[in-house]
């Protein structure tokens, strides 16, 4: 997509669609008054008729605009300017972009309002650029008729006094984030016969080369040699061998701390012998969303050339029911020596990332974040749109929560009291792999805590937000690419 920032009056911009934000309440800003003048007060009349209120994400199409250079006008409500936030601006821009991206080869121009409340101009440009990339990409990879098309060209239009230089840098950053989100979405949306540990690893290698990330792929023999006992046990039921992808960005020099990002990559989760019912299994191609998020974030961190050291790890297995599948009652020995009694083969994600976390700790991680579509219990607790956060180090978690807020993504912390450890006790091994019915999202986190060697760590349970069952005005159904932005933000800010 040809994406550029220009400074111009809205009436002079040439595009198939001109998109203009309309605030709710109060006087209209100068640029909107000027547009209204050009349209002979058509907008004022629409406002008086109650059709143009400026309510957040309200859309109004003006199909016939002979007084403008652009062929059509789309007005999108941005709500009250004093309440404008990253989240609200993202919602308004995504809704508008989705509205106008249903045809091939369109040129759009999106005017950035003068009054942006607490949002800086550059921040608004960045979020808009991401929306132009993400909102115009559908999930219909295999349909003859696509419902959404990337734009041929997009202009981000600043008022005539706007500083195009810094806005262009912000737009480029937004584009990089958008591409990273779309990469994560694409990998999650692809079906499990295409994406399995070997193909995910091959794609990761290809992406790494394209952005100068160092990339190593561990095959099943290397994983065996490195004692990934519990990860390999999960992989045993599948004909597809396990892989681990290691992506390394060394932007921070030899003495700077290293952040490790660990992603769960169960490329298909049948539940194993504790098999899932059809309804629960249908969307289980999404069980590698953590790994896809880590890969996406790493490509963005590399392209943005962040002056930090970050290593991304993707633990990749398929959880199936072949004759060698791991069984209930099996005792696994994890990489760090902890023995685990298997009470449920569908609680496999924690048996994958535990070994990856322990490897990351042994290989220089100073701080860790893991992402996993880990528990239905987290979705029960927080709903489908909010990720759960769990930590052994409040200061580190606070940095991550602050980064999520800056990125406009919703995270909520859940407790990690010692008493939850009781639920994981086993009669025959150091622990069980499930803690029973109550507090399931937390006992999963308590389980993982045993593998991080006391290093500052946050576990993010993205079982709800990673995959949307249906589309909404502001986002496509299917994979969402959630938390890519938060990871990039925390990598950038969290190490200073
Ligand atoms: Zn499972």
Radius of gyration from the CA trace? 24 Å
Strand order of the largest sheet: 7-8-10-9-13-17-14-15
CATH architecture of the largest domain: 3-Layer(aba) Sandwich
Structural class call reads alpha/beta
Please tell me about this protein's structure.
The chain has 496 residues and is of the alpha/beta class. It folds into two domains: 2-181, Leucine Aminopeptidase, subunit E, domain 1; 195-493, Aminopeptidase. The protein contains 15 helices and 19 strands. The chain has helices spanning 30-38, 42-48, 86-100, 121-134, 164-189, 197-210, 220-225, 229-235, 278-281, 289-303, 349-362, 376-382, 394-407, 440-449, 484-493; strands at 2-7, 17-23, 59-62, 72-79, 107-111, 153-158, 214-218, 243-250, 258-269, 309-319, 331-333, 339-341, 367-372, 387-391, 411-413, 431-432, 457-461, 467-468, 478-479. An eight-stranded mixed beta sheet has the order 7-8-10-9-13-17-14-15, sandwiched between helices. The protein has a six-stranded mixed beta sheet with strand order 1-6-5-2-4-3, covered by helices on one side. The chain has a three-stranded mixed beta sheet with strand order 11-12-16. Helix 8 (229-235) packs antiparallel against helix 11 (349-362), helix 10 packs across helix 15 and helix 13 (394-407) crosses helix 15 (484-493). The longest helix is centred in the middle third of the chain and has 26 residues, at 164-189. It is elongated, with a radius of gyration of 24 Å. The chain starts with a strand and ends with a helix. The mean pLDDT is 96. Bound molecules: zinc ion.
